[in-house]
Each structure stands twice: as structure tokens, then as C-alpha cells.
Write a structure and sequence with these properties.
Order of helices and strands: HHHEEHHH
Strand order of the largest sheet: 1-2
Structural class: mainly alpha
Number of helices: 6
Radius of gyration: 18 Å
Helix content: 40-55%
Length: 146
């Protein structure tokens, strides 16, 4: 089973929280942690990764904390996930050259799956998630055939 890690899920929740509650004001790691049920220390670890990728910024002082660096409608889920977990890959052989790639019957499938997931997450913004809108509207719905 492919599953997003805890860090990726928490990072998404933190970003949505900031989009919903920031109102232009910084939010402390303690407030985020309390609201989301995450240890403030773990919130800070995740925020540091998000800050490194310039998705959030920190503010010093008594009323300091963290805020988004951009409009949440311009921050994609792909950016958030890759900021904390690296590239989206269902198999490790996608990122690194594989000595079996030329004759591997599954390599193309893994690459296509990675591209499909990344495209879906790229159409989903933190702003849409904060508003509770559908994840991403697709030009062509996914069709399943048996």
C-alpha cells in the first residue's frame, strides 16, 4: 500500500490551518499544535522544512510565529509534500537510474503513476483545501474499465 507519511499529512494540516486562521497574523507553533493535536516541537520541525522551501516565514517577537509566504491559492499540495518528503515516487527506481530500466516491465507503470499523482496534487491548492472545496477538478474524469 502506498501511503503518505505522517510528516506529509501533518505538513498539509499545518498549511491549511495557517490559510484558515492566520488572517495575516503570525501563528505560534503552540497554537498550531494545540489546534491540530500535534506536539509543538514536531510542528516546529515541520515548519522549518516548509520555511526552507519558502512556503512559510517566521516572525520574531512577542507576537511572532509563522505565516504563509504566498496566497494559499498559489501553494500546491505537491509543493508541500515535496518540501517535507522529497519527490513523489511510488517506487525508488524512478528517481535514480536503474540498471534494469531497459527491460523492466513495471518501470513505465511506476513513472506514469508518479506523474498522475503529482499532476493531481499540483491541481490541489492549500486555498481550495482550506475552503473545503473538492480536491481538484479534472478535465477528463478517471475511467475504470473491467
Amino acid at each position: 500500500m502506498m501511503a503518505l507519511g505522517t510528516k506529509a499529512r501533518y505538513a498539509t494540516r499545518i498549511m491549511v490551518f495557517l490559510a484558515r486562521h492566520a488572517e495575516g497574523k503570525p501563528v505560534s507553533r503552540y497554537d498550531i499544535g494545540e489546534a491540530e493535536g500535534i506536539s509543538p516541537d514536531y510542528v516546529e520541525q515541520i515548519l522549518i522544512l516548509l520555511k526552507t522551501k519558502r512556503l512559510v516565514q517566521s516572525h520574531r517577537g512577542r507576537n511572532g510565529g509563522f505565516s504563509l509566504t504566498r496566497d494559499p491559492d498559489t501553494i500546491t499540495l505537491t509543493e508541500v509534500l515535496e518540501a517535507v518528503d522529497g519527490p513523489i515516487m511510488p517506487a525508488p527506481c524512478i528517481g535514480d537510474p536503474c540498471d534494469r530500466e531497459d527491460g523492466c516491465p513495471s518501470c513505465g507503470v511506476w513513472k506514469e503513476a508518479a506523474e498522475t499523482v503529482k499532476n493531481f496534487f499540483s491541481k490541489t491548492t492549500i486555498g481550495k483545501m482550506a475552503r473545503g472545496e473538492a480536491a481538484a477538478s479534472s478535465e477528463s474524469p478517471i475511467m475504470y474499465q473491467i
